[in-house]
Write a structure and sequence with these properties.
The chain has 207 residues and is α/β, with parallel strands linked by helices. It has helices spanning 14-22, 42-49, 66-80, 96-101, 122-128, 164-186; strands spanning 3-9, 29-36, 54-56, 84-87, 106-110, 133-140, 150-157, 194-197. The longest helix has 23 residues, at 164-186. The chain starts with a strand and ends in a 10-residue tail after the last strand. Bound molecules: 5-O-phosphono-beta-D-ribofuranosylamine.
Length: 207
């Protein structure tokens, strides 16, 4: 049975595009909704251009009332009836109640090799730590931030003159490869982790 996938975004939605564009042919899932907390999110236009239903629930009018904001999110989700939620650049913290409702059916992509660097500014933190490798992780969402079971990781090298921006730019394409690969397996019930490594190596192997 084809799984119905809703993707939650807050911005450009490059991971959403990668997920949507991957769900074709014999893929066991199809996108049914792209939902944003920002009505101006550029990803909404990209989704609409791909014929995917979109919705936005602006979180700002709800202030600190997360439960009311999530109730409005859930109303949109109830209309789309997804089986799986994919958080893709979604920048709002979700309450334990909302997460419990989607327990085992909600994924997130985080730009670090979890459990390292939960939270924000992951690329700068990896550089500050002098890491020689960095990357991204797809995990099941649990109430603790960036803490659920890891379903896949992609690794890139950290290069000597990297900045947070150059490192982020090296990680992002790997996110676009990793998330679709994890979702394809997850949609079949396969939980075996996906592991990808960037073709780059340092120092260059042909040195
Ligand atoms: C990405 O770095 C992703 O890891 C993080 O949000 C950033 C933007 O994602 N969660 P997108 O382009 O909006 O998918």
């Amino acid at each position: 049975m084809t799984k119905r996938v809703a993707i939650l975004i807050s911005g450009g939605g490059s991971n959403m595009v990668a997920l949507v564009d991957s769900m074709t042919g014999d893929h066991p899932a199809r996108p049914v909704l792209v939902l944003s907390n920002d009505p101006q999110a550029a990803g909404l236009d990209k989704a609409a251009a791909r014929g995917i239903p979109t919705a936005a629930v602006d979180h700002r009018p709800y202030g600190k009332d997360r439960a009311a904001f999530e109730q409005a999110l859930q109303a949109e989700l109830d209309r789309a009836q997804p089986d799986i939620l994919c958080l893709a650049g979604f920048m709002r913290i979700l309450t334990a109640d909302f997460i419990a409702r989607w327990d085992g059916r909600m994924l997130n992509i985080h730009p670090s090799l979890l459990p390292k660097y939960k939270g924000l500014n992951t690329h700068a933190r990896a550089l500050a730590a002098g890491d020689t490798e960095h990357g991204c992780s797809v995990h099941q969402v649990t109430p603790a931030l960036d803490d659920g079971p890891v379903l896949g990781q992609a690794v890139v090298p950290v290069l000597p003159r990297d900045t947070a921006d150059t490192l982020a730019a090296r990680v992002l394409p790997m996110e676009h490869a990793l998330y679709p690969a994890v979702l394809r397996k997850f949609a079949t019930g396969d939980r075996t982790p996906v592991f990808l490594r960037s073709g780059l190596s340092f120092p260059p192997s042909n040195a």
